[in-house]
Specification:
alpha/beta; binds 3-methyl-2-oxobutanoic acid; 3-stranded antiparallel sheet; 8-stranded parallel β-barrel; binds zinc ion; single chain
Length: 509
Protein backbone atom coordinates (compact mmCIF):
# COMPACT_ATOMS: atom_id res chain seq x y z
CA UNK A 1 0.00 0.00 0.00
CA UNK A 2 1.34 3.49 -0.86
CA UNK A 3 1.90 5.85 2.07
CA UNK A 4 0.72 9.40 1.32
CA UNK A 5 2.43 12.29 3.08
CA UNK A 6 0.21 14.59 5.10
CA UNK A 7 1.27 18.24 4.86
CA UNK A 8 -0.75 20.13 7.44
CA UNK A 9 -1.28 23.84 6.82
CA UNK A 10 -3.73 24.60 9.66
CA UNK A 11 -1.23 27.08 11.10
CA UNK A 12 -0.67 28.85 7.77
CA UNK A 13 -3.52 28.60 5.23
CA UNK A 14 -5.96 27.79 8.06
CA UNK A 15 -4.83 30.54 10.36
CA UNK A 16 -4.80 33.21 7.66
CA UNK A 17 -8.56 32.77 7.06
CA UNK A 18 -10.75 35.47 8.61
CA UNK A 19 -11.78 34.63 12.15
CA UNK A 20 -9.25 31.79 12.53
CA UNK A 21 -6.29 33.62 14.02
CA UNK A 22 -4.42 32.05 16.93
CA UNK A 23 -1.97 33.49 19.42
CA UNK A 24 1.52 32.11 19.88
CA UNK A 25 0.61 29.80 22.79
CA UNK A 26 -2.33 28.43 20.85
CA UNK A 27 -0.16 27.79 17.79
CA UNK A 28 2.36 25.94 19.95
CA UNK A 29 -0.39 23.73 21.43
CA UNK A 30 -1.75 22.94 17.97
CA UNK A 31 1.75 22.18 16.61
CA UNK A 32 2.47 19.79 19.48
CA UNK A 33 -0.80 17.96 18.86
CA UNK A 34 -0.16 17.78 15.11
CA UNK A 35 3.21 16.21 15.83
CA UNK A 36 1.54 13.59 18.06
CA UNK A 37 -1.12 13.02 15.41
CA UNK A 38 1.71 11.97 13.11
CA UNK A 39 1.56 14.51 10.27
CA UNK A 40 4.64 14.46 8.05
CA UNK A 41 4.96 18.23 7.61
CA UNK A 42 3.64 21.17 9.65
CA UNK A 43 3.48 24.41 7.70
CA UNK A 44 3.89 26.75 10.65
CA UNK A 45 3.42 30.15 9.01
CA UNK A 46 4.43 32.79 6.48
CA UNK A 47 7.36 34.44 8.31
CA UNK A 48 7.76 37.56 6.17
CA UNK A 49 4.08 38.48 6.60
CA UNK A 50 4.45 39.70 10.21
CA UNK A 51 6.87 39.61 13.16
CA UNK A 52 4.28 37.44 14.98
CA UNK A 53 4.34 34.85 12.19
CA UNK A 54 8.14 34.80 12.12
CA UNK A 55 8.26 34.31 15.90
CA UNK A 56 5.67 31.51 15.74
CA UNK A 57 7.61 29.59 13.07
CA UNK A 58 10.82 30.09 15.06
CA UNK A 59 9.35 28.77 18.31
CA UNK A 60 7.56 25.85 16.64
CA UNK A 61 10.80 24.94 14.80
CA UNK A 62 12.62 24.64 18.08
CA UNK A 63 9.89 22.53 19.74
CA UNK A 64 8.83 20.07 17.03
CA UNK A 65 11.24 17.15 16.66
CA UNK A 66 9.38 14.38 14.86
CA UNK A 67 8.17 16.02 11.70
CA UNK A 68 9.29 18.53 9.12
CA UNK A 69 8.48 22.20 9.76
CA UNK A 70 7.80 24.32 6.67
CA UNK A 71 7.67 28.08 6.19
CA UNK A 72 5.90 29.71 3.27
CA UNK A 73 7.74 32.31 1.16
CA UNK A 74 6.96 34.14 -2.04
CA UNK A 75 9.67 33.78 -4.69
CA UNK A 76 11.55 36.73 -3.25
CA UNK A 77 14.91 36.86 -1.50
CA UNK A 78 13.54 38.86 1.45
CA UNK A 79 10.84 36.21 2.01
CA UNK A 80 13.36 33.38 1.83
CA UNK A 81 15.69 35.20 4.24
CA UNK A 82 12.84 35.60 6.74
CA UNK A 83 11.78 31.99 6.14
CA UNK A 84 15.25 30.70 6.91
CA UNK A 85 15.66 32.96 9.93
CA UNK A 86 12.51 31.35 11.32
CA UNK A 87 13.41 27.77 10.39
CA UNK A 88 17.10 27.49 11.08
CA UNK A 89 16.60 25.70 14.44
CA UNK A 90 14.29 23.05 13.05
CA UNK A 91 15.43 19.42 13.09
CA UNK A 92 13.94 19.03 9.62
CA UNK A 93 13.29 22.43 7.96
CA UNK A 94 11.52 22.99 4.64
CA UNK A 95 11.37 26.23 2.66
CA UNK A 96 8.14 26.37 0.67
CA UNK A 97 8.24 28.90 -2.18
CA UNK A 98 5.34 29.75 -4.46
CA UNK A 99 4.78 31.66 -7.68
CA UNK A 100 1.65 31.83 -9.83
CA UNK A 101 1.64 30.17 -13.25
CA UNK A 102 -1.88 30.90 -14.56
CA UNK A 103 -2.40 33.47 -17.35
CA UNK A 104 -4.74 35.45 -15.08
CA UNK A 105 -2.31 35.70 -12.19
CA UNK A 106 0.71 36.31 -14.41
CA UNK A 107 -0.96 39.13 -16.32
CA UNK A 108 -2.96 40.91 -13.63
CA UNK A 109 -1.22 40.12 -10.36
CA UNK A 110 2.42 39.57 -11.21
CA UNK A 111 2.55 41.53 -14.48
CA UNK A 112 5.10 39.03 -15.72
CA UNK A 113 5.53 36.90 -18.83
CA UNK A 114 5.90 33.11 -18.79
CA UNK A 115 9.66 33.49 -19.36
CA UNK A 116 10.00 35.84 -16.39
CA UNK A 117 7.99 33.52 -14.13
CA UNK A 118 10.12 30.56 -15.15
CA UNK A 119 13.33 32.47 -14.50
CA UNK A 120 12.18 33.77 -11.11
CA UNK A 121 10.97 30.32 -10.02
CA UNK A 122 14.32 28.76 -10.85
CA UNK A 123 16.43 31.50 -9.32
CA UNK A 124 14.47 31.52 -6.07
CA UNK A 125 14.68 27.73 -5.71
CA UNK A 126 18.45 28.00 -6.24
CA UNK A 127 18.62 30.80 -3.67
CA UNK A 128 16.57 28.84 -1.09
CA UNK A 129 18.72 25.77 -1.73
CA UNK A 130 21.76 27.68 -0.41
CA UNK A 131 20.12 27.60 3.04
CA UNK A 132 18.14 24.40 3.10
CA UNK A 133 18.08 21.08 1.25
CA UNK A 134 14.34 20.48 1.52
CA UNK A 135 12.65 22.89 -0.90
CA UNK A 136 9.02 22.75 -2.02
CA UNK A 137 7.86 24.75 -5.02
CA UNK A 138 4.17 25.56 -5.56
CA UNK A 139 2.75 26.69 -8.90
CA UNK A 140 -0.03 28.89 -7.54
CA UNK A 141 -3.34 28.56 -9.45
CA UNK A 142 -1.93 25.50 -11.24
CA UNK A 143 -5.39 24.11 -12.03
CA UNK A 144 -6.12 27.20 -14.20
CA UNK A 145 -2.65 27.20 -15.76
CA UNK A 146 -1.51 25.77 -19.09
CA UNK A 147 -0.51 22.21 -18.10
CA UNK A 148 2.47 22.26 -20.52
CA UNK A 149 3.78 25.42 -18.83
CA UNK A 150 3.36 23.92 -15.34
CA UNK A 151 5.33 20.84 -16.44
CA UNK A 152 8.07 23.06 -17.84
CA UNK A 153 8.28 25.07 -14.59
CA UNK A 154 8.29 21.86 -12.52
CA UNK A 155 11.05 20.38 -14.70
CA UNK A 156 13.28 23.42 -14.23
CA UNK A 157 12.70 23.84 -10.48
CA UNK A 158 13.44 20.13 -10.00
CA UNK A 159 16.76 20.67 -11.83
CA UNK A 160 17.37 23.65 -9.53
CA UNK A 161 16.92 21.43 -6.46
CA UNK A 162 13.21 21.36 -5.47
CA UNK A 163 12.40 18.06 -3.75
CA UNK A 164 8.62 18.58 -3.76
CA UNK A 165 6.49 20.20 -6.47
CA UNK A 166 2.99 21.23 -5.53
CA UNK A 167 -0.01 21.55 -7.87
CA UNK A 168 -2.59 23.73 -6.07
CA UNK A 169 -6.23 24.19 -6.98
CA UNK A 170 -5.92 27.66 -5.45
CA UNK A 171 -9.48 28.80 -6.13
CA UNK A 172 -11.24 25.44 -5.77
CA UNK A 173 -12.20 25.39 -9.45
CA UNK A 174 -11.28 21.87 -10.53
CA UNK A 175 -13.59 18.88 -10.93
CA UNK A 176 -12.39 15.53 -9.52
CA UNK A 177 -11.95 13.64 -12.79
CA UNK A 178 -10.34 16.63 -14.48
CA UNK A 179 -8.00 17.21 -11.54
CA UNK A 180 -6.99 13.55 -11.48
CA UNK A 181 -6.23 13.72 -15.23
CA UNK A 182 -4.09 16.83 -14.69
CA UNK A 183 -2.05 15.06 -12.06
CA UNK A 184 -1.56 12.06 -14.34
CA UNK A 185 -0.52 14.46 -17.15
CA UNK A 186 2.05 16.13 -14.88
CA UNK A 187 3.37 12.71 -13.83
CA UNK A 188 3.73 11.62 -17.44
CA UNK A 189 5.10 14.85 -18.91
CA UNK A 190 7.57 16.27 -16.37
CA UNK A 191 11.16 15.08 -16.65
CA UNK A 192 12.58 14.22 -13.23
CA UNK A 193 9.19 13.99 -11.50
CA UNK A 194 9.89 10.37 -10.50
CA UNK A 195 12.76 11.59 -8.29
CA UNK A 196 10.66 14.06 -6.28
CA UNK A 197 7.43 14.23 -4.33
CA UNK A 198 4.31 15.41 -6.21
CA UNK A 199 1.92 17.28 -3.94
CA UNK A 200 -1.58 18.75 -4.28
CA UNK A 201 -3.24 21.57 -2.36
CA UNK A 202 -6.99 21.87 -2.88
CA UNK A 203 -9.41 24.59 -1.82
CA UNK A 204 -13.07 23.94 -1.17
CA UNK A 205 -14.93 26.67 -3.08
CA UNK A 206 -17.15 24.08 -4.80
CA UNK A 207 -17.06 21.65 -1.88
CA UNK A 208 -14.68 19.37 -3.81
CA UNK A 209 -11.35 19.81 -2.03
CA UNK A 210 -11.28 16.31 -0.53
CA UNK A 211 -12.67 14.65 -3.68
CA UNK A 212 -10.07 16.42 -5.81
CA UNK A 213 -7.25 15.46 -3.45
CA UNK A 214 -8.34 11.81 -3.53
CA UNK A 215 -8.58 11.88 -7.33
CA UNK A 216 -5.02 13.23 -7.33
CA UNK A 217 -3.82 10.42 -5.06
CA UNK A 218 -5.43 7.82 -7.30
CA UNK A 219 -3.55 9.40 -10.22
CA UNK A 220 -0.15 9.47 -8.56
CA UNK A 221 0.08 12.35 -6.04
CA UNK A 222 2.40 11.52 -3.14
CA UNK A 223 1.48 14.33 -0.73
CA UNK A 224 -1.75 16.14 0.16
CA UNK A 225 -1.97 19.54 1.81
CA UNK A 226 -4.84 19.96 4.24
CA UNK A 227 -6.07 21.51 7.47
CA UNK A 228 -7.83 20.35 10.61
CA UNK A 229 -11.60 20.85 10.29
CA UNK A 230 -10.94 22.10 6.73
CA UNK A 231 -10.34 25.68 7.91
CA UNK A 232 -8.67 27.98 5.41
CA UNK A 233 -9.09 30.81 2.92
CA UNK A 234 -12.73 31.39 1.81
CA UNK A 235 -14.51 27.99 1.85
CA UNK A 236 -11.41 26.41 3.36
CA UNK A 237 -8.88 23.73 2.44
CA UNK A 238 -9.20 19.96 2.11
CA UNK A 239 -10.01 18.64 5.55
CA UNK A 240 -7.31 16.44 7.08
CA UNK A 241 -9.74 14.23 8.96
CA UNK A 242 -11.85 13.53 5.85
CA UNK A 243 -8.82 12.72 3.72
CA UNK A 244 -7.19 10.50 6.31
CA UNK A 245 -10.38 8.59 7.12
CA UNK A 246 -11.23 8.35 3.42
CA UNK A 247 -7.94 6.55 2.90
CA UNK A 248 -8.35 4.47 6.06
CA UNK A 249 -11.89 3.31 5.26
CA UNK A 250 -11.44 2.91 1.47
CA UNK A 251 -7.79 1.83 1.35
CA UNK A 252 -9.09 -1.27 -0.42
CA UNK A 253 -10.15 0.88 -3.38
CA UNK A 254 -7.52 3.65 -3.29
CA UNK A 255 -4.60 1.42 -2.30
CA UNK A 256 -3.09 4.16 -0.15
CA UNK A 257 -2.88 5.08 3.52
CA UNK A 258 -1.17 7.64 5.78
CA UNK A 259 0.97 7.48 8.92
CA UNK A 260 -1.65 9.38 10.95
CA UNK A 261 -2.70 8.02 14.34
CA UNK A 262 -6.42 8.33 13.63
CA UNK A 263 -7.34 7.94 17.32
CA UNK A 264 -5.95 11.44 17.91
CA UNK A 265 -8.14 13.11 15.26
CA UNK A 266 -11.08 13.99 17.49
CA UNK A 267 -9.04 15.75 20.18
CA UNK A 268 -7.03 17.83 17.67
CA UNK A 269 -10.25 18.81 15.92
CA UNK A 270 -11.75 19.99 19.24
CA UNK A 271 -8.58 21.90 20.09
CA UNK A 272 -8.53 23.76 16.76
CA UNK A 273 -12.21 24.61 17.10
CA UNK A 274 -11.67 25.92 20.62
CA UNK A 275 -8.59 28.02 19.97
CA UNK A 276 -10.00 29.60 16.80
CA UNK A 277 -13.52 29.95 18.18
CA UNK A 278 -14.78 28.46 14.89
CA UNK A 279 -17.51 25.96 15.61
CA UNK A 280 -17.76 22.70 13.70
CA UNK A 281 -21.00 22.29 11.77
CA UNK A 282 -23.02 19.44 13.34
CA UNK A 283 -23.21 17.43 10.10
CA UNK A 284 -19.50 17.82 9.30
CA UNK A 285 -18.08 14.48 8.15
CA UNK A 286 -15.95 12.62 10.73
CA UNK A 287 -15.87 15.23 13.53
CA UNK A 288 -19.32 16.88 13.48
CA UNK A 289 -21.57 16.34 16.47
CA UNK A 290 -23.95 14.22 14.41
CA UNK A 291 -21.32 12.24 12.51
CA UNK A 292 -22.01 9.11 14.55
CA UNK A 293 -25.54 9.89 15.78
CA UNK A 294 -28.33 7.59 14.64
CA UNK A 295 -31.74 9.21 15.00
CA UNK A 296 -34.06 7.30 12.70
CA UNK A 297 -35.62 4.26 14.39
CA UNK A 298 -34.79 1.97 11.51
CA UNK A 299 -31.14 3.02 11.68
CA UNK A 300 -31.00 2.62 15.46
CA UNK A 301 -32.45 -0.84 15.16
CA UNK A 302 -29.89 -1.76 12.49
CA UNK A 303 -26.97 -0.41 14.50
CA UNK A 304 -28.09 -2.28 17.62
CA UNK A 305 -28.20 -5.53 15.65
CA UNK A 306 -24.92 -4.98 13.85
CA UNK A 307 -23.13 -1.59 13.92
CA UNK A 308 -21.84 -2.05 10.38
CA UNK A 309 -25.35 -1.77 8.94
CA UNK A 310 -25.15 2.03 9.16
CA UNK A 311 -21.62 2.73 10.42
CA UNK A 312 -18.60 2.59 8.11
CA UNK A 313 -16.11 3.46 10.85
CA UNK A 314 -16.30 3.46 14.62
CA UNK A 315 -16.28 6.57 16.81
CA UNK A 316 -13.32 4.98 18.65
CA UNK A 317 -11.27 4.90 15.44
CA UNK A 318 -11.10 8.72 15.50
CA UNK A 319 -10.63 8.83 19.27
CA UNK A 320 -14.10 9.68 20.53
CA UNK A 321 -13.77 8.56 24.13
CA UNK A 322 -15.78 5.66 25.42
CA UNK A 323 -18.98 6.82 27.10
CA UNK A 324 -19.17 10.11 25.23
CA UNK A 325 -22.44 10.40 23.40
CA UNK A 326 -21.95 13.27 21.04
CA UNK A 327 -25.29 14.97 21.46
CA UNK A 328 -26.20 14.21 25.06
CA UNK A 329 -22.69 14.41 26.54
CA UNK A 330 -23.17 11.66 29.07
CA UNK A 331 -22.45 12.27 32.71
CA UNK A 332 -18.91 11.36 33.57
CA UNK A 333 -17.77 12.82 36.85
CA UNK A 334 -19.24 14.46 39.94
CA UNK A 335 -18.52 15.90 43.38
CA UNK A 336 -17.16 12.64 44.76
CA UNK A 337 -14.90 11.79 41.85
CA UNK A 338 -11.30 11.80 42.96
CA UNK A 339 -7.97 12.66 41.39
CA UNK A 340 -7.56 9.16 39.95
CA UNK A 341 -10.92 9.13 38.14
CA UNK A 342 -10.18 12.59 36.78
CA UNK A 343 -6.73 11.52 35.55
CA UNK A 344 -8.24 8.47 33.85
CA UNK A 345 -10.86 10.57 32.05
CA UNK A 346 -8.16 12.95 30.77
CA UNK A 347 -6.31 9.94 29.35
CA UNK A 348 -9.48 8.68 27.64
CA UNK A 349 -9.95 12.15 26.17
CA UNK A 350 -6.38 11.95 24.80
CA UNK A 351 -5.43 15.04 26.79
CA UNK A 352 -1.87 15.16 28.12
CA UNK A 353 -0.88 18.02 30.41
CA UNK A 354 2.10 18.58 32.71
CA UNK A 355 1.78 18.18 36.50
CA UNK A 356 1.51 21.89 37.21
CA UNK A 357 -1.35 22.33 34.71
CA UNK A 358 -3.00 19.16 36.04
CA UNK A 359 -3.10 20.64 39.56
CA UNK A 360 -4.76 23.83 38.25
CA UNK A 361 -7.27 21.92 36.12
CA UNK A 362 -8.09 19.57 38.99
CA UNK A 363 -8.68 22.51 41.32
CA UNK A 364 -10.96 24.05 38.69
CA UNK A 365 -12.82 20.74 38.44
CA UNK A 366 -13.36 20.59 42.20
CA UNK A 367 -14.65 24.19 42.23
CA UNK A 368 -16.97 23.37 39.36
CA UNK A 369 -18.45 20.36 41.16
CA UNK A 370 -19.53 22.78 43.91
CA UNK A 371 -21.58 24.72 41.37
CA UNK A 372 -22.71 21.89 39.06
CA UNK A 373 -23.90 18.41 39.98
CA UNK A 374 -22.29 16.71 37.03
CA UNK A 375 -19.17 17.55 35.09
CA UNK A 376 -18.86 16.04 31.64
CA UNK A 377 -16.30 15.81 28.86
CA UNK A 378 -17.08 19.20 27.35
CA UNK A 379 -16.66 20.81 30.79
CA UNK A 380 -13.32 19.06 31.20
CA UNK A 381 -12.10 20.21 27.78
CA UNK A 382 -13.11 23.76 28.70
CA UNK A 383 -11.21 23.57 31.99
CA UNK A 384 -8.10 22.32 30.22
CA UNK A 385 -8.40 25.10 27.65
CA UNK A 386 -8.73 27.66 30.44
CA UNK A 387 -5.41 26.56 31.86
CA UNK A 388 -3.37 25.97 28.70
CA UNK A 389 -2.76 27.75 25.42
CA UNK A 390 -3.16 31.13 27.03
CA UNK A 391 -0.85 34.13 27.02
CA UNK A 392 0.49 35.61 30.28
CA UNK A 393 -2.15 37.64 32.12
CA UNK A 394 -1.30 41.33 31.84
CA UNK A 395 -4.66 41.94 33.52
CA UNK A 396 -6.28 39.62 36.05
CA UNK A 397 -9.94 39.79 37.00
CA UNK A 398 -10.38 40.53 40.71
CA UNK A 399 -14.01 41.58 41.03
CA UNK A 400 -16.97 42.66 38.93
CA UNK A 401 -20.55 43.72 39.44
CA UNK A 402 -23.31 45.02 37.22
CA UNK A 403 -26.53 46.81 37.89
CA UNK A 404 -29.11 46.55 35.20
CA UNK A 405 -32.83 46.36 34.60
CA UNK A 406 -35.57 47.21 32.15
CA UNK A 407 -35.96 50.78 33.43
CA UNK A 408 -32.37 51.88 33.88
CA UNK A 409 -29.14 52.22 31.97
CA UNK A 410 -26.69 49.44 32.92
CA UNK A 411 -23.76 50.26 35.18
CA UNK A 412 -20.68 48.08 35.39
CA UNK A 413 -17.90 48.07 38.02
CA UNK A 414 -14.65 46.25 37.49
CA UNK A 415 -11.47 45.69 39.50
CA UNK A 416 -8.36 44.32 37.80
CA UNK A 417 -4.82 43.59 38.93
CA UNK A 418 -1.86 44.13 36.61
CA UNK A 419 1.20 41.90 36.47
CA UNK A 420 3.11 44.17 38.87
CA UNK A 421 0.37 43.48 41.42
CA UNK A 422 -1.21 46.95 41.22
CA UNK A 423 -5.02 47.10 41.54
CA UNK A 424 -7.19 49.41 39.40
CA UNK A 425 -10.94 49.99 39.48
CA UNK A 426 -13.30 51.65 37.03
CA UNK A 427 -16.99 51.92 36.35
CA UNK A 428 -19.00 52.87 33.29
CA UNK A 429 -22.57 53.16 32.04
CA UNK A 430 -23.55 51.29 28.93
CA UNK A 431 -26.20 49.97 26.65
CA UNK A 432 -26.60 46.70 28.58
CA UNK A 433 -24.37 45.04 31.19
CA UNK A 434 -21.63 43.87 28.83
CA UNK A 435 -21.31 47.21 27.06
CA UNK A 436 -20.93 48.85 30.48
CA UNK A 437 -18.38 46.42 31.81
CA UNK A 438 -16.32 46.28 28.58
CA UNK A 439 -16.17 50.10 28.62
CA UNK A 440 -14.94 50.02 32.22
CA UNK A 441 -12.23 47.49 31.25
CA UNK A 442 -11.15 49.75 28.35
CA UNK A 443 -10.78 52.65 30.78
CA UNK A 444 -8.30 50.68 32.89
CA UNK A 445 -6.41 49.25 29.93
CA UNK A 446 -6.28 52.60 28.14
CA UNK A 447 -7.22 51.18 24.74
CA UNK A 448 -10.48 50.96 22.83
CA UNK A 449 -10.47 47.88 20.65
CA UNK A 450 -13.40 47.14 18.35
CA UNK A 451 -15.58 44.21 19.43
CA UNK A 452 -15.86 42.31 16.14
CA UNK A 453 -17.58 39.17 17.34
CA UNK A 454 -19.36 38.08 20.48
CA UNK A 455 -20.74 34.57 20.74
CA UNK A 456 -22.27 33.01 23.81
CA UNK A 457 -23.20 29.35 24.01
CA UNK A 458 -23.91 26.69 26.61
CA UNK A 459 -21.24 24.02 26.91
CA UNK A 460 -23.81 21.38 27.78
CA UNK A 461 -27.57 21.25 28.20
CA UNK A 462 -29.45 22.32 31.34
CA UNK A 463 -29.70 25.60 33.22
CA UNK A 464 -26.64 24.81 35.36
CA UNK A 465 -24.53 24.47 32.21
CA UNK A 466 -21.40 26.58 31.93
CA UNK A 467 -21.62 29.47 29.51
CA UNK A 468 -18.82 29.66 26.94
CA UNK A 469 -18.12 33.02 25.36
CA UNK A 470 -15.95 33.67 22.33
CA UNK A 471 -14.98 37.23 21.46
CA UNK A 472 -12.86 38.64 18.68
CA UNK A 473 -11.47 42.16 19.05
CA UNK A 474 -9.43 44.31 16.69
CA UNK A 475 -7.23 47.38 16.94
CA UNK A 476 -5.50 49.11 14.01
CA UNK A 477 -6.24 46.21 11.67
CA UNK A 478 -4.93 43.46 14.00
CA UNK A 479 -7.17 40.86 15.56
CA UNK A 480 -7.20 38.78 18.76
CA UNK A 481 -9.47 36.04 20.08
CA UNK A 482 -10.61 35.48 23.62
CA UNK A 483 -12.52 32.72 25.31
CA UNK A 484 -14.12 32.52 28.72
CA UNK A 485 -16.06 29.89 30.61
CA UNK A 486 -18.13 30.22 33.76
CA UNK A 487 -21.41 29.10 35.23
CA UNK A 488 -22.32 32.81 35.14
CA UNK A 489 -22.71 34.11 31.59
CA UNK A 490 -21.66 37.66 32.45
CA UNK A 491 -18.50 36.36 34.08
CA UNK A 492 -17.75 34.12 31.08
CA UNK A 493 -18.13 37.20 28.84
CA UNK A 494 -15.79 39.27 31.02
CA UNK A 495 -13.23 36.45 31.06
CA UNK A 496 -13.43 36.16 27.26
CA UNK A 497 -13.02 39.90 26.75
CA UNK A 498 -10.09 40.03 29.18
CA UNK A 499 -8.36 37.06 27.54
CA UNK A 500 -8.60 38.83 24.16
CA UNK A 501 -7.25 42.01 25.82
CA UNK A 502 -4.38 39.97 27.31
CA UNK A 503 -3.57 38.47 23.89
CA UNK A 504 -3.52 42.02 22.48
CA UNK A 505 -1.33 43.36 25.29
CA UNK A 506 1.08 40.44 24.92
CA UNK A 507 1.53 41.02 21.19
CA UNK A 508 1.72 44.79 21.39
CA UNK A 509 4.13 44.86 24.32
O1 LIG B 1 -3.82 28.04 -2.36
C1 LIG B 1 -2.63 28.15 -2.72
O2 LIG B 1 -2.30 28.17 -3.91
C2 LIG B 1 -1.64 28.28 -1.67
C3 LIG B 1 -0.21 28.20 -2.10
C4 LIG B 1 0.62 29.21 -1.40
C5 LIG B 1 0.31 26.81 -1.92
O3 LIG B 1 -1.97 28.37 -0.51
ZN1 LIG C 1 -4.03 27.63 -0.22
Amino acid sequence: MRIIKIFDTTLRDGEQAPGCSMNLQEKIEVAKRLEKLGVDIIEAGFPVSSPGDLEAVKVISSIVKNCTVAALCRCLEKDINAGWEALSNAVSPRIHVFLATSPLHMEYKLKMTEEQVLEQAVSCVKYAKEFCNDIEFSAEDASRSDPKFVCKVFEEVIKAGALTVNFPDTVGYAMPQEFGERIRYVKENTKGIEKVCLSVHCHNDLGLAVANSIAAIVNGADQVECTINGIGERAGNASLEELVMGLKVRGDYINADTKIDTTKIYSVSRLVSQVTGVKIQPNKAIVGENAFAHEAGIHQHGVLTNRQTYEIMTPQSIGIPKGMLFSSNSLVLGKHSGRHAFEERLKELNITIDNETFEKVFEGFKNLTDKKKTVNDRDIEALVMDNTASVPETWKLVHWSVNTGSAACAKGDIRLQNKEGVFSSANAMGDGPLDAIFKAINQIVGKEPELELYDLGAITGGSSSQGETIVKISLNGRRWNGRGVSTDVIESSIKAYLSAINAMEFELK
